[in-house]
Structures are given as structure tokens and as C-alpha cells.
Amino acid sequence: MKSTRLLLLLMLLLSAGVLQAKNTIIKVACVGNSVTYGYGLKDRDHDAYPVRLQEMLDSKYGSGRFEVGNFGRSGATLLYKGHRPYILQPEFRQALDFRPDWVVIHLGLNDTDPRNWPDWKEEFIPNYRALIDSFLVVNPDARILICKMTPIFDRHSRFQSGTRDWHAQIQEAIEKVAWGAQAQLVDLYTPLHSRPDLFPDALHPNPEGAKILARTVYSALTGDYGGLRLPVLYGSGMVLQRDENLAIYGTANARQQVTVVLKKDGEVIQESKAYSKADGFWKTTLEAVKAGGPYTLTVTSTTLSKDDRSVHYPSHYPLSLENLTKKSTQTITYDDVCFGDVWLASGQSNMELRVDQCNTLGQDLADAARLDSRLRLYNMPARARTDAVEWDDSVLAYTNQLRHMDFQGWKAASAASVAPFSAVAFNFGRVLCDSLKDVPIGIICNAVGGSTTESWIDRSTLEWELPNILRDWRNGDYGQPWARGRMTQNIAHALDKESAAYNPLQRHPYDPCYLYEAAIQPLEHYILKGVIWYQGESNAHNVELHEKLFRLLEQSWRNAFSTRYESFQVTRQTLPFYTVQLSSLPRPSWPAFRDSQRRLAKELPWTWMAVTTDLGDPADVHYRSKRPVGERLALQALAHTYSRSLESEGPKVVSAKQGEGESVVLWFRHADGLTCTRGFEMAGHDGIFYPADIEVNGSAIRLTSPEVFYPVAVRYGWSGFTDADLRNAQGLPASTFYMKVED
What we know:
The protein is built from 24 helices and 28 strands. With 743 residues, the protein is of the alpha/beta class. Helix 1 runs parallel beside helix 7 (124-138) and helix 17 packs across helix 24 (627-640). The N and C termini lie far apart (71 Å).
């Protein structure tokens, strides 16, 4: 292998001749396959990413400063023994003759073909290094940038038969190449992985996708990432998680020093520095701060001097044109910052239901006035509701662009801020404020009416764990028929072939992954105390599927709300989830679904549930009594997250055993003051359930029925809308349940 590489270099040296004098024009060679070439674009001479890149460079630095060449070849492989090696294509020779100053390489997609990767994968890294060396022969000072591959989506015919797996393996190999060659790594995957709508054939981007590619490469080449930016949740009035070392992070133009200063009453409490990398990312850490405030957080980015650059970056670190031409400083200041406990409230319409839509409006607004800045709210309502309407072109467009949520910023509790906020989330925060006294509470709410569980899970998780759910969800049978129908109604204009907005890949909030990408991804790595979750109405048709999806959702979010470091993450597998069981409503599948939610809360670590079957409205899925829901969630959080000694659960069944005669005896925990008059049924071997007579005795209940001679199963609250009334002395209700009887 080494001799082959040396021979190739010798041949290139002989053919290259004497190197030309240094160009006054910077030549940029875009080397790659069909994505670089512009395959599938109706007007590739205008829309291919190298053309767009030329326009961006000209716009910023003036025409004549750069010359960008497109040396893409459709079907080309990086592997020399692949079915179409790039080094044997005329575009390779043309790229060498171009003698580029900067080389942007995007290869590997076609190496996922079963003709290539299974047999020749061991040669990928040495072949890539030889390709890089070939450009250094014609220009020893060439700057090399190699790209992580653009996505291949689940609609690709070979996605599950190997492409998904091999694509991931090649991405890892590309990272190793970049490290070994000391080349700049450009991530073309992340900016596009959340935009399947931009890939008509699951492989090649459309003009909008090509423009995103160009913008990503432009930033990597120039170091221009739009200046200093922090995540969307950062703002004046924000709550940061107390008692935790916090990663403060963001982006800036490349090669800048970022200084983070925390002050209280004008005095510097902490100061730390970070340096933005080639991808613009920077991260520093604030040491844990006790509850309290207000503080001022100031973040400043400054262009490094030449001497500073040599200290903080290796010699091969890519230069930034912007940073070399002028010195700049940017400052962002956040006032009235508190350290306390941050909770995320999410789900669908019953979490979304506003305070001013509920039956305790006056009481809630009075509470808001007394809480003031101890409770701070960050509302993220949907910009367009998923009501029974057809969306116009503007809604279709911003939904595709993942701008469906309205990030309204931090606000202290007041009548004005609480009225349009989630009633469940507000009352949860209210109880925590009253119980924790001097600890500020921040509540972020991003619930979306009708949303599905699968819409809240990240794409990578579903690609690897449940890829079939991603394929044509609207016309498949994974989604609830109601949800798929409402999606079809909302996006009808995009499905009309005669419409200017026609787009068969139109996105919608109910789509798998959509709400993760639009409403969770922007919040990633913001440290939370926990999550309150009220959702399930749009997944109650398929209990078994939901049990898989909910497990994946918890896994997905625990990874998302972790601490990001430069090369690894510290995940928070103990991040608590407090869920709400579906209420009472006359829908046939709901009893089994409620029982499934009960079992999930029992089986899954760091997961607890609030019961609401006593609060439902038989005529309205959006019952108006939400204050008790928030209170019950808060009781669970106080008991399990804050270790308070209080009763937070309704009666929980422990066992069901044969009693004397034809009776069944049930034993319960959380059963002080147990009361019950109705709601139990028994069945024998025939599987037919009959109402049971109830005898309460301390923490046990004895059931009998004249119709059941040898009981084998019992159930409680087993109807969509139930008046079952099993409670404890605290008035907390028991969950719907089904249980087999032990001998």
C-alpha cells in the first residue's frame, strides 16, 4: 500500500511540472460526487453548491478575489477499487490542473454501495490520504478541507440493507482522515439531517439544500459564522440550573476568544475564557451557583491577534479571512439572570391548554401576581395551530424550515404572561415555588396540540431503532388515522400538483422527528431539573407501539439535555420524567392505554405518573380542570426529586390473590384511608368480566361476584370514561389497572 502511494505521488510530480507562482486569486476546488456536481438540479449551472459558493464569496470579498471550480463526478467513489474511482475520472485530472489553493473534498456517499464498502473498507483511509497528498503535490501550500458526508435518508432503497450502517462507518473513517492529515473537518451532515424535505430522492439536495451546503462550506472557508451567538433559550430574565457545573456555549467567527463574566451587584463572581474552533463552536464552564439572583451574564468575543493565534492554535489551523483582515469585538449581555430549577413542560393539547381557557382563571391569575419573579416562564407556542384548516403557503414554508415554534423569551409570572401559558405547567411551577420558597423556578413550555409521540423523538434514534415509522408516515398505518387525516388537511395545498407550493415531502408537526427538530433540538444541552409530559391521546390507538416509542423518547431526551464538551457528552440518564395518565373520555382504547402508562411508569427508571381519571369530561377531551393536574405532578416531583416526606401517589396495587371462597384479595401501597365504592370487575377462565362487590379492609380490598366462580383476573376503572372512585386519605385517585390473580 505504501509503495502504491509513493508511486502515485511520483507520477503526479512528473506530470505537474514546475509549480506556478503564487496566485493572487485564491482558487477553490470543490471535489466530490453527484452532490457536488449538482445532480438532479434543473439548473445546476446556477444552483449547484460550488456556484452558490462563488456567489457568496464574491458578495463578501468582491469579484475577482476567488475562483471556485466544480470538479464533481456523479457516481464517483473515494475507494480506488470502487466501482467508479474518482482518481480515474477526468474531473480528478482537471482538479489537479486547476492547482487549487483550497480543496474541499466531499466523497464517500457512493462508497456505501455493496460493491464497494464490504470488500474494500480497509483501504478507505489510506486511499483518502493519498488523494489529499495528490493535491499537496501540485500545491504544497494547499489548504485541505474534507467533509463529513451529507445524509442519506430512510427512503433510500438500500437504507436498511446496509447503507445506513456503512454511511455511519464511513463518517467515522472521514473523521480519522481529518485528524491524521491535520485537515479541517467540515460537517455537511448536521445542517441537513433535519431537512429530509430538501432531498427528493433521499440522496441529492434540491436548490435550497445546495444553498445550505454552500453556506456551510463558505463559513468553513472564511471563518464567518455570523458573529457571536448563543442558544435561543439564553436571554435576560432566564433561569439557569442551580448547583450544577454549566456548559456555557455558542458560536462565533473562527479563531476568536470568548470571555464569559458572571456578575452580581456589579461584582465579578466568575470569569472564564474559551476559543472558537474551526466550526465556530466554543464552550466554557460556569462553576455551580447556589439558588438566587439576579445576576448579569456578559459574553464577549474578540478577534485574536496574530501572536495570540499562534499560542492557542496549531500551525495547521485554518486561517479565517475575516479575522485576518480586521479586529472585531462583540458583546451580549443578559440581565436579571437567576439560578434555580428549570423544568420542561411538553406534550400535546392538554399540556398546551392555556390558563385563560380553564375553570380556575381568577385563582391562577391571583397566584401569578404574588409569585412574580420567583416563577419565570418561557412560552414556545406553535405559530400555526393544527386545527381543521388548510394552511397557506407561508405556513407551509416556515414549517419546512423548522420555524413552526414561536420562541417568546423569558417572562416573570404576571397576569399577562400566565394567561396564555399552559395551565398544567403554571400550576406545577406554582406549587414548587410555594414549597421551595427561595428557589427560582423556570418553566419552558413547548406543547403542540394533537402531536404524536414519534414527532418528539430525534431522527437518529428512529433511523436505528424504528426506521419503518419514518417512511411515508402520512399514508402508512403507524400513525393514528385522526392525526394522519388532520396532517393531510393542513398541508392539502402542498399536495395539490397544480399548486405553486406543491411539495410531496411537505413537513408537518405530527411527522416523526419534526417536533424534536423544531422544538427540542434548539434547546439541546440546556440543563434541566426534569420534564413534565402530558401526551398520548394521539397514540392511544396502538398501545404496543407507544410502549416502544415512549422508551425511545426518554432515551432521546436524556441524551439531548446533557452537557456537551468538545469531544464527548455527559448524558443525564437520571433526568426525571413526570407523566400524566390519560383522563376519562369515552374512547374504547383508553383503558388499555392508561394501564400501559401505569406499567411504563413502574418499569422505567426515573419515571413517575400523575393520575387524572377523576378529572375528565365525557364530552370534551380538553377538560377544563387543570389546576389539580399541575398540583399532582408537583407532589410527585417534591417526593421523588426533592425528597420531601409527603404522599404523592394514589393507591397502587401490589398483588391480587385468591381469597376465601370465590373471592380475590387485592393489596395496595399508598393506601392510608383507602375508600372505594365502585369500579372493580372480575373474570373467570371464560374471560368475561362482571362487576365486583367491594369490601375495604385497611390497605386491602376483597372482591366477590356471584357470576364468577373461579376468578383469574381483575380490573379497575376499565372504561373510557369511568366513575371508579378508589382513593386514599389525601384524595389521590388510583390508576386504571388489569391484573391476573395469583393462586
